[in-house]
Each structure stands twice: as C-alpha cells, then as structure tokens.
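Forum: Protein Structure Q&A
Topic: Joint prediction for protein chains with partners

I've read a bunch of threads here and the consensus seems to be that you should model interacting components together rather than docking separate models afterwards. I'd like to see that in practice. Below is the full input, 623 residues plus whatever partners are listed. Could one of the regulars post the assembled result?
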Amino acid sequence: MEGCLAAQIAARHPSKIVPSQPGDLIYLLSVRISNMSTSSPAIETRHLRKTFGDKVAVKDLTLTVERGEVFGFLGPNGAGKTTSVKMLLHLTAPSEGEGYLFGAPLRDPKVRQKIGFLPEHFRFHDWLRADEFMALHADLYHMPRDLAHRRIPELLDLVSLTPHAQKKLREFSKGMLQRIGLAQALLNEPELVILDEPTSGLDPVGRRLVRDIIRDLRQRGTTVFLNSHLLSEVEITCDRVAFIKHGEVIRTSRLQDLVEGELSVEVRLRNLRPEAIEGLSRWGRQVRLDGEHLTLTLGSEADLPSINRYLVEQGADVFALRPQHISLEDLFIEIVGTDGGL
Amino acid sequence: MSTFVIARLTFQEAARRRILLAALLLGILFLVVFGLGFHYIMQDLEKNIGPSRLMLNEVRNFLLMAGLYVVNFLTAMMTVLTSVDTLSGEISSGTVHTLVSKPIQRWEIVMGKWLGFAGMITLYLLMMGGGVMGFIYLRSGYVAPNPVSALALIWLNGLILLSISLLGGTSLSTLANGVLVFGLWGVAFIGGWVEQIGAYLPNSSASQTSINIGVITSLIMPTEAIWKLAAHNLQSPLVAALGFSPFSSTTYPSLIMVIYAVLYLIVAVALAMRLFSRRDL
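Posted by a regular:
Agreed with the consensus. Here's the joint model:
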C-alpha cells in the first residue's frame, strides 16, 4: 500500500526528494493525501474587502488561482496588492467576503503547513545564523528533524548561500536576505508559494535564479502567486495575470492570450465618416480617429482583413494598415491607466 | 509544540542581546557589593556589639530585606527592559510576518514569548535571590523566616510586569509600552507609600483617604502590594514590632491580594492573546 502510493507520488513529481526513512514517507503521505482527495483550487476568493476606517484598501477581490499555475498579480502602487496578499495569509483579517486556500478558510492555520511566503519588506531575526534561521522556520513548519537536516543544505545550495551558512543574518546584504527568504518559503515543499516582489533587491543573476526556481516549481506542479512590478519578469514566468486597480480586479487573462492575441493597429486613411467608427467596435476596442490616423486595439490578427474590408466599404481611402503586438507594459498602462498609481 | 519553538527563540534572542548581559553584570556587581558590605558590617558588629545573637540577627534580617528589595527592583527592571520590545519591535519591523504566516496560532506566539521570558526571569531571580540569601547563610548561618514564599512573590511580581509588557506590546510602540509599564509600576510604588503613611496618621479622614488611594493603586498594579506581603513574611518579629522601616511595613495585604494578582496576570495574558489575534499586521 505504502509502496504503491509512493510510486504514484514519484511518478507525479519526479524531481522530489526521495524519503529514505519510514517516518519521512508517512509524513509526506499524510500531507499529500489531504490535498490529493479534493480538487479545490489553490486560491479562491469571493468579494474580499478591506477597509481601514474610511479608507478602502481593497474594494472587491474575486479571483481563482488553479493548482499548478503561475499567477501574476499586477497593479499600480497603492492598488491593494500587498493588502490582498496579507488577507490571503491572514496577516490581516478581511472586513468582508471570504477566501479559501485549497478549500480551507483563510483563517485556518493548518493549511499554511504547505504554503510558503516571502513578504515584500522581508525582515528576519538578524541575530540568527543562516542555518539557525532555516532550522527555526523548519520547526515552525513542524518538519521532522532529520528531514529538516537534509532539506536545509539543499535549499541553501539552491539559492547559492551555502558558503554563508554559518554567518549571522545581520551580515547579509539585501539580496542575500531576499534569497534566504525565498529558501525559507520553499522549506516544506509547499503546494502554494506566495511571493511579494521577490526580485526587488536582486541583481540580474539573482533575478534569473528566482525565475529558474519558479520554473522548477511549476514543473513540480506547485502553484505560484506572484506580486510583481517587474513586468518583464511576469512576462517570462506567468501563466495568467490579474490586473488590480483601486482595490478591484479589473481583468484576469491568460498571458498567452493577452500578449500573442492583442494587437494595436494603426490605419492611415482619409474620408472616414464619423458614424462608421462605431461599427469598428465589432472587432476592436479603444477606437480613436485623429485626423488621418485611426488607432484601435484588436483581439487577434484574424480580424485585420475584416477591418480593411469594412473601412473600404464605408468609403474610406486606406493608405496604410500597421498592426503591432502589444507589450505587457503597454497593456498594463492601457488596462490600469496612468492615473492609477499613488 | 509551536509555542515551545517560539519560547526557545525568545529565550535565545534574549540571551544573545546585550541588554541581558548588562542586567547580568549589574546583578553580579550588586551581589559583590552586597556581599562585601554584609561581610564588613557583620565583622564590625561582631567585634563591637559582642555575641548578642538577637541583635545580630536583627541586623542580618534588615540587610537581607534590603538586599531582596533591590533584587525585586532589579528583577522588575530586567523583565521590563528585555520584554518591552518583543512584540512591538517585531510588529513594526515586519519580522512578525514570516512567523504569523506559518501554521501557528497567534495566541501560541504570545504564549511562547511569555514562557521564554518567564524562564529567563526565573533563572535571574534564582541567581540574584539565591545569591543574596545564600551569601548571608554562608557568611553567618542566618535564614530569614519564609524565604521561599518571599522569592515566589518576587517571582510573581516579575511575571505580572512581563504580562503587562506583552499586553502593551500587542498594540503600542516599544517606547509607549515602556512608558506604560514603568508608569504603572511607579503608580503602584507611590500608592504603596501613600498607604503606608496614611496608616501611621492618627485616625482621620485624611488617613482613610490615603489608605484608600493605596488600595486603589494596588488594584491597578499589584506589584507593590505583593512586595509588601513578601517583606512582611520575611521580617523578624522585632522589626515588625518596631513598625516603620524602609523595607517593610505594618500594613500588608492578605492572601486575597495574591489571588487577585494571579488573576490579574491571567487576564493580562489572555487579553494580550486576544488583541494580538485580532491585530492587522
């Protein structure tokens, strides 16, 4: 029975550590089984709301993050991203609404057994040595001692901090602290990792390290929830993104659809009747005519010929039709607007 | 289980901080000064007054009570100075975020911190109180009445201050918390003296008011009343008859005050747990 389940686990997660003692196996199994039997999404929120007195930090957070996906959370400063993350981890209690992590309510601490978190403003007990720090967090995860003893060096190696294992954290640079913060989040082989601006203090080498780790997590089926300002990072790592503005999720999309699908189109033409412009909203958004230049945003390349035909049928003289793929940054600004930040 | 992880962390942190080292050195310095002082005073008295045991014991008792009065004070000081920052500092720096996001209940964090500091207070008191009483015994073979209950009451004082310090830490900054705890302690101290003086005035309304003030302050913060009980238990009968002394008093609380103090402590810790559980971090 044990062997059969162990084989299933090994098949699903080939790069996982192999339990070498019965105690480890039972421990891993007991935590896995509770997750295997349900099919709840990793994160599910319904109308989560947070107010501080009169101020509304998060107006309405409704989203679902499926197991195994890398989900990006994008928004301008002050949009409520960090408050949302805090509500997910019950650092802050929501004023209204409900949320679930793997089907368990947010306030239940047991589910955090398999959740790793790296805060945005990471601060740790700096009088601890790096290995002691990892041991502390392993204890807080209720990890068995020998499992911790094997896991800690593995993780320190993963984030390239092995030579600094005996040093006190107060001697660490910001980048090193961020890396050990990431290591701590991965200690208990989490099912969900929540990263709030995980690359903010890192140099390009560090950022690539984090990207590689996220990619590796994804291969293992770990869900990753990522808060980031660095759109280039999000573009490379995420499956889906949500745009948040003024404490509300404005849009959620698969990144592939967003970036590959969307185009901005610029048409140079003359003699287009203003009434004809409305007809264009059949295919595109944000239609604007400025003298000879018509711009609009299309959902896909396939609509280009239809647009062309329509314009000609409406009696316009089309001189040039220029499609261009939107970058995530342009999309961000388009969706969120330039007025959204603080 | 998680509670003990936090307790161990708290103990380790306190042990590595300089403030504990300072409290320890100060404590040892005090013990040395006390020891030397006691030794020379006794030497002098034994030579001059002669072997009147009663007289010698009175002096020994007096010095022991003076010593324990300082121990009470130093224990209070150490408790507050080491614990005032524990929650406030972690909350304001954000260090608490990676703790609270683990599979741990908020109350376990408060309890763990309480246990960690309680352990430290216990060791400190054993060293200091044990040092004072142990030295006196070794030097002159004198044992005061009720030594264990006296130490237990000083221990209770430390735990009360610790509980208030944690309670304040859930909601206040380190500085505000320090002001709160020392402020309350000061109120208790003054109230105790007002009551003491009131007890000596001839029966009058002023005397009664003074006593009432003392009672009220001891309800606000029982530390002074608890010390008075400890002192009363320690004093020799002659000192009791004489009445007034800087380290003891005629008015002393009953067992009810001890029960009140224990309940006070429990309520403070429970309230701290509740406030911390609800706090947005």
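The interface with chain B takes residues 52, 86, 89-93, 109-113, 115, 117, 119, 121-125, 127, 136-137, 139-142, 181, 184 of chain A (CB under 8 Å).
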